[in-house]
Amino acid sequence: MESSCWCPQPALRVHKGCKSAMEHRSTIARSRACDRKRMQLLSLYAGLIGLLILALAFMLGSRRYTVEGESMEPSLREGDVLYYTGFQQYGYGDLVIFQGREAYGMIVKRVIGLPGDRIQVYSDGSVARNNVLLEESYIKPDELGNSAMREITVGEGKLFVMGDNRAESIDSRDARIGQITISSVHGKVEKIVRLEDGRIYN
Fold first, then answer.
1. Which domain holds residue 41?
2. Shared domain check, 52 and 89
3. Which runs of consecutive H residues, i.e. helices, occur in the chain?
4. Residue 161 CB: number of other CB atoms within 10 A?
5. Residue 134: how many CB atoms within 10 A of its CB?
6. Among 89, 65, 77, 84, which Cα is nearest to 159's?
7. How far is Cα of residue 69 from the mean position of the Cα atoms in its chain?
8. Residues carrying an active site annotation
9. How far is CA 98 from CA 109, 151, 159, in A?
10. pTM recorded for the entire structure
């Protein structure tokens, strides 16, 4: 009977050079993963800092105005709080805060005409700008038909502004306000806070 004997197999050995290369690749992979995480954190921090800077700039740059009267209804109501910022380019439809004459102080109106525009107002308060009738869904028409104004041309460096409540607004149609100088504008309304229902409008 033949006797069997078990012979141990030689242990598999990893060459030192291969082991070193594997460790090197593993170190590089870990380093790259750390770099990616670091970049993600840096991007997150940069975004948060940017948001904080924008919020701070808005808080410092914005000013507050409280609406008085009915001249801007239905868009604005008496008691609405407006936040506005200066150093803006003003365009059609913008709500702007400007310095009126001494008897009126600060006023809010809507920009209807820019320098060089030809503006005509009809009896119900509707407006034609450069012979094109405007679509103004935001206005409260003059039901008594007393708002007509012959065509005028907006002067250089000036704005033609009107209130949305055409029958109740003293604005650029009236000599007491007239066309306002752009330099008299304090800023453009960015946010509207309606205190009676706690809503915020942009």
1. 14-62
2. no
3. 16-61
4. 26
5. 13
6. 89
7. 26
8. 71, 109
9. 8, 24, 11
10. 0.69
